[in-house]
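Help needed: design a sequence for this.
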C-alpha cells in the first residue's frame, strides 16, 4: 500500500493560498484543536495494523471502557473532523455505472477525506467482482493518496434491508467480505422472508444475528483489524423492525454501531426531474407483507430528507437512545447515478453479463442528461467523524465512539460540542460520550458553530437559522423490543442564530434531575419546518415532508448530531 498523505487542508506543506475557502476554514479548525501538522500526521500508522496489533486494539478498547468509569466529570481530547461517505457504488454493483476513478475524483472535488465502496451482494460479485474490485481499490488508493478508501459490501440482511459492512485495510479485507457474503447474505441464500409469522422468518432473523456475531469473532481473533456495520435506509421499505435493529446491536454493539439517519438519493424529488411522485431518498414505497406492521404509513416518507426513524423527536432512534446505549446516525450519497449526469452504462460484449463477470462495462459519455437520483459523494450529504489523528483506524474508532455529526448542503463548516459540569475546568465530554454527575448538579452544553465560508455546489451560501437541543430520559432496556417511541424526549431549547457568521459558541445551561438523560442537537436553514410527527408540544418546528415531485433538497437542509449521555449518580 502506498504512503498515505494528509489531506491538503491538513498538510503544512500545502500553502493556505492554494486552498479554497472551506479548506482554509478546516485548517483553522485543525489549528484550534492543536492537531495541525505533525500532531495529526500518520507517522508509523501509515500502514494499517493487521492481526499483530489485535491485542493492542483490545487494550485500547479496555482503556476506553475504563475511562468511562473514571469518576465524575470528563475530559475528552481535542478533535479534528474528517468528512466521509460510507455508501458509494461503482461498476462492481449490478445497478450502478461509475468507475472507481470517477467516484474518487468526485469525492476529492467535494472535499471527502474518507469513503467506502460498498458494492451490492450478488453471485457475480462474490465469485468474480470482489477480487477484481480489490485490485481497483489498491489502484484508487495509489491514485488518491490524500483519501482514505475502504472496501465494503452492501449486505442484504436476512429478513430485512441492507447494511454497509466494511473492514480496515489489511491482508484479509477482501477475504472477510467474500466469506461473509457467501455465508450470510439474505439474497444469495434466499433468506428474504421477514413477514410476521412467516415460515422462515425466525430462522432468517436468527441468521442475521449469527452473521454479526461472526464478524465480531473475526475482529476478536485478529483476522481483521477492525470491521463495522451500519444499517442503510432503514425505513425505506419498513422491513427493519425495531426488534431486529435491537437484536443486531445487542449481538455485537462494537460492530453494529448505527444506521443511516438520512438516506442517499437526495436528488430524487428535484422539481421537474424524475416525476410527479418522487420523494427525497426514493422513499416512495408502501407496506408489504414483510414490513413491520407497527410502523404508520407516514414512516415510509422522509422529513427534511431524513429517515422518519431519525427525524421524529421521540421516535425510533430516540427510543433506542433512551435505553442508555449509543446508536449512531450517518448520512451519505448511496451514489449509483448522479442527477443531470451525462454518462450511461457501456454495452456488454457477446456472452457477458454481470453474473459471469462481476463487473459492468465502463460507462460512456452521451452529452445528454441521464436518469438519476443521487449526488456525487460529498456533494450534498456529509458525515463528519471526530479523530485525533489521520488514518483508517482513526476513522473507524471515531465512528465507534460516536463522535459524529452530519449535514446536508454543506450547511456548516464545523461543529464542536462539549458538555461539562460547571465546577470543572477541563474540556468536558463530546458527542457519543458520557458525563457522570450528581443529582441537581449544574452543567453547561457548549456548542461551537463555524458557519459556511463559501457557496455550496449549488451556488448557495448556506445560512444556519436555528439550533435545537433535544433531551430525553434514559430508562434502560425496553420491555417490548418493538417499541419505537420515547415519550420523555422532546425539544427543550431552540436558539435563533440567524444572521450570525464565523465561529461562535452557544452556552446552554442544563440541570441534572433524578434521572439519567441524553442530549442531542439539530438545526436547519429555517426554510421548511412545522410541528414534528408526534406533535408541537414535543417538537414545535421540526422537519416536514414535501409534496411529491417538489422536494428541492438544496432548499431544505439540516444538521444532526449524535447524543451525549449524562449518567446521574444513584439514578
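Sure. Designed sequence:
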Amino acid at each position: 500500500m502506498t504512503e498515505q498523505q494528509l489531506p491538503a487542508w491538513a498538510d503544512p506543506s500545502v500553502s493556505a493560498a492554494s486552498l479554497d475557502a472551506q479548506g482554509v476554514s478546516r485548517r483553522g479548525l485543525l489549528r484550534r484543536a492543536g492537531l495541525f501538522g505533525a500532531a495529526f500526521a500518520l507517522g508509523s500508522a501509515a500502514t494499517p495494523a493487521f492481526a499483530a496489533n489485535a491485542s493492542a486494539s483490545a487494550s485500547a478498547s479496555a482503556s476506553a471502557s475504563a475511562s468511562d468509569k473514571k469518576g465524575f466529570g470528563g475530559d475528552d481530547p481535542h478533535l479534528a473532523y474528517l468528512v466521509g461517505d460510507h455508501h458509494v457504488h461503482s461498476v462492481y454493483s449490478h445497478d450502478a455505472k461509475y468507475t472507481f476513478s470517477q467516484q474518487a475524483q468526485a469525492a476529492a472535488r467535494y472535499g471527502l477525506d474518507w469513503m467506502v465502496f460498498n458494492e451490492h451482494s450478488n453471485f457475480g460479485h462474490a465469485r468474480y467482482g470482489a477480487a477484481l474490485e480489490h485490485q481497483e481499490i489498491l489502484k484508487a488508493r495509489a491514485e488518491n493518496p490524500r483519501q482514505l478508501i475502504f472496501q465494503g459490501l452492501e449486505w442484504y440482511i436476512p429478513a430485512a434491508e441492507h447494511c454497509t459492512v466494511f473492514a480496515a485495510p489489511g491482508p484479509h479485507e477482501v477475504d472477510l467480505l467474500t466469506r461473509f457474503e457467501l455465508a450470510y447474505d439474505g439474497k444469495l441464500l434466499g433468506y428474504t422472508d421477514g413477514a410476521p409469522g412467516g415460515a422462515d422468518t425466525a430462522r432468517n432473523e436468527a441468521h442475521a444475528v449469527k452473521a454479526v456475531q461472526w464478524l465480531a469473532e473475526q475482529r476478536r481473533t485478529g483476522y481483521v483489524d477492525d470491521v463495522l456495520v451500519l444499517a442503510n435506509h432503514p425505513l425505506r421499505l419498513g422491513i427493519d423492525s425495531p426488534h431486529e435493529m435491537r437484536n443486531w446491536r445487542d449481538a455485537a454493539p462494537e460492530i453494529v454501531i448505527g444506521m443511516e439517519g438520512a438516506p442517499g438519493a437526495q436528488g430524487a424529488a428535484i422539481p421537474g426531474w424524475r416525476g410527479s411522485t418522487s420523494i427525497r431518498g426514493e422513499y416512495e414505497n408502501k407496506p408489504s407483507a414483510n414490513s413491520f406492521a407497527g410502523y404508520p404509513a407516514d414512516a415510509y416518507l422522509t422529513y427534511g430528507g431524513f429517515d422518519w426513524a431519525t427525524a421524529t423527536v421521540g421516535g425510533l432512534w430516540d427510543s433506542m437512545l433512551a435505553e442508555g446505549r449509543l446508536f449512531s446516525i450517518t448520512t451519505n450519497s448511496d451514489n449509483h447515478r448522479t442527477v443531470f449526469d451525462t454518462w450511461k452504462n457501456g454495452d456488454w460484449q457477446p456472452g457477458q453479463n454481470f453474473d459471469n463477470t462481476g463487473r459492468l462495462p465502463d460507462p460512456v459519455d452521451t452529452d445528454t442528461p441521464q436518469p438519476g437520483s443521487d449526488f456525487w459523494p460529498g456533494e450534498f450529504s456529509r458525515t463528519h467523524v471526530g479523530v485525533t489523528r489521520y488514518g483508517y483506524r482513526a476513522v473507524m474508532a471515531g465512528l465507534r465512539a460516536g463522535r459524529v455529526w452530519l449535514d446536508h448542503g454543506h450547511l456548516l463548516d464545523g461543529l464542536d460540542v462539549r458538555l461539562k459540569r460547571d465546577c470543572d475546568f477541563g474540556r468536558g465530554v463530546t458527542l457519543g460520550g458520557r458525563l457522570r454527575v450528581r443529582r441537581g448538579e449544574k452543567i453547561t452544553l457548549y456548542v461551537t458553530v463555524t458557519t459556511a465560508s463559501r457557496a455550496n455546489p449549488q451556488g448557495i451560501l448556506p445560512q444556519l437559522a436555528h439550533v435545537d437541543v433535544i433531551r430525553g430520559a434514559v430508562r434502560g432496556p425496553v420491555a417490548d423490543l418493538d417499541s419505537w417511541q420515547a415519550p420523555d424526549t422532546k425539544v427543550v431549547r431552540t436558539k435563533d442564530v440567524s444572521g450570525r457568521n464565523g465561529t461562535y459558541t452557544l452556552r446552554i445551561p442544563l440541570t441534572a434531575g433524578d434521572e439519567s438523560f441524553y442530549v442531542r442537537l439539530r438545526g436547519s436553514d429555517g426554510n421548511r419546518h412545522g410541528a414534528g410527527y408526534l406533535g408541537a408540544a414535543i417538537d414545535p418546528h421540526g422537519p416536514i415532508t414535501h409534496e411529491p415531485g417538489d422536494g428541492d433538497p438544496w432548499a431544505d437542509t439540516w444538521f444532526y448530531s449524535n447524543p451525549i449521555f449524562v449518567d446521574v449518580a444513584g439514578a
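Residues 123-143 form the longest helix (21 residues).
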